[in-house]
Target: BBS12 protein
Amino acid sequence: LPMAFRDVNARRHIGLQQLSTLASTGRTFLGPMKSHKFIVDEITNQSTLICSAVRLIESLDLTSAVGQLLNETIQAQNKEFKTGMSTLLFLVGAWSNAVVECLQQNVPIPAIVSVMSEGLNSCCERVQCLQIPIHDVKKELCKSRVRPKVFESQTGQVGCDGLTNPWNLLCFQRDISATEEVIPINSCSHQGDDCNFNKFLVFPLTGFGSGASVVRAVGDKSSSALSGSGVTATSCITRKLTHSRHFSTLGKSRFSSQQGNFQGHLKGPPADVCGCCGLGHLAVALSHGNQTSVKLLQSIAAYQQERADCSGCSQVNVAGIVTCCVLGLPESYSCVSPGFVTLVSPEQATVIKHFADKPLRILLMDGDLTERYRHLGFNRPCNVRTILEHPNPQGGRAGNVWLSRMSDILMSFDVNLVLVKGNVCKNFMERCIASRILVIGCVARDVLRAFGAATGAQAVTYLSQVNASCVGNGAWAELWQTGDGRAVDLGELLPARISAGGIPLLTAVLTTALPSKAQLLEDQFWTLLYRLHHALKDGKVFPGGGAVELLCLSHLQALAEQPGRPGNAKAVRELPSPWLAEYKAIVLQALASGWKRYLSVLLYNSAKANSELEAGASVDQHLQKAVACGSASTYILEEFRRGGVLRDGSDPFPDQVTDLKVCDNVAAKTEAWRRALDLVLLVLQTDAEIITGPRRNQILNSPVSREFMFL
Model:
């Protein structure tokens, strides 16, 4: 048996090497200051900007079995949490190298598997002391005071950021823009909850602080004042601003031409009656520097809290949120709109203009709107033999009969709007446009449910199933407009907004002038949304910025330094077999090296070290301070309260003015650790089976061989 182990360790573990190589491609995605990558499609020659492990792995040509396993692992993490994939990818590479180092020191494979698994379980138990309840986080962050520094406002003025919670000041217009000019109050042309968006005037300000807004209630002509601070806005104005690196070329002329001081009262909703203050701060803490998505998400959270009538529910309804990417506009036009915003063709836009605020009768289709569509589980009759089905459905007589019959059904029930979950027949779409019926395809099921609840419509699978009770009422459609009331005409596709009275649906409209950046913006928004969702679901968060990983590193080094001889009673209790204690220190140090690489790359990517070597030295200094403190967890929590672990006194985000701390999800982070190590150990054992054969590897991993192999 010892000779067998030497045989395994002497040969090359191709699987581990492939895993390490694939994982190394995503090391720049670690940390808040990610280095983006361009992915070029060889067929279309179109490029896409990415900064996530999911998009990277999807873009790679993974022909090997190891690549497929890595892809499945990352997809599983993405499907469940929508976050933690970059951590998973990096740790897969770091721990693959750690396992190879153990093999080079002739550590038996059963010892590697057992000690690493036990070491990670011990780390997961140890870091539980760092978990912070959401209630305490919101309380602490709401009490945090933003340093009074000068920030640049989008109205061309330079103001003073007072000691006010900037996230408390957000209220709503019909479209809640991340950054927009003063919007006049117009009469609400539709009934329903959309009218609530006209309660306040919103003047969002740029700069971090972001998200801060000058708000004036309708009819309020009082002088400006910072809510809760006693500092007037006009007293903070120091000089006109004509040029700034934060302003785009498009915005310079508009901003520099604006004159005068702020008008209106700085006020917001009642002081955190719904917890919006805490949710806004928590979103910032979980954003890791993503400002645009933070502002949109804070708008969504506050609107959903308002609809909940201050019931105390702090959950974010993910099912009631959709996204729509609009190309050709600056990113400053990104906003949150009530209802469903989607892209339509110019011909469909003509139909929408014809509706002109008229109430629409709506029909919902749970499937494809094509002649050949059959629902999942459809069984053909057993006693019928089909000779030829649909010989020419698009151009022949049979196809025309189907088109005419389906059109007659819609017109007989006076249907104006059809939302389809799947695809729509092109010829049928053209016929509906000619009949002034708006048909929208590829609509998410959650959107169908929201319209069904708001209008009373019932989804059907086939148009032949439609009856009077299936058709809903009270929907309306219009072309989407920017925050300043301007219609958007981008040529090929136009954004349109479909809504109904009382519908809880919100659309995050993500605008960009770069087509290659659209997918990136959408991924960033959903990542932050699910981070907040899982944080509220878990009821607790981890301190971020490397705090949890630093405690794991300190804990593993402490375990490795403990005596590990087989005769040691404590070692016997900690490890399943006494002989494993001989390799405990080597394997635990290898596992700890993965955490150290993680922290070093995190510091280097965050521009807090000139090299990974310097970053590693900084990590060692923090470890020494933790040992000198006597309790690593106490030291880490104290550093986090002072502003963040491994920060060395610098701000968490460049050019930002805030004392908010960085937080991480609990379940997503720990599950990413487990998935990373499980994948590495699976590839390790698979390599061993390839080298020695499955039967021999089974003997090596048997309990009997573990106990007696070195006797």
Observations:
- The mean pLDDT is 75.
- DSSP finds 24 helices and 19 strands in the chain.
- Residues 666-692 form the longest helix (27 residues).
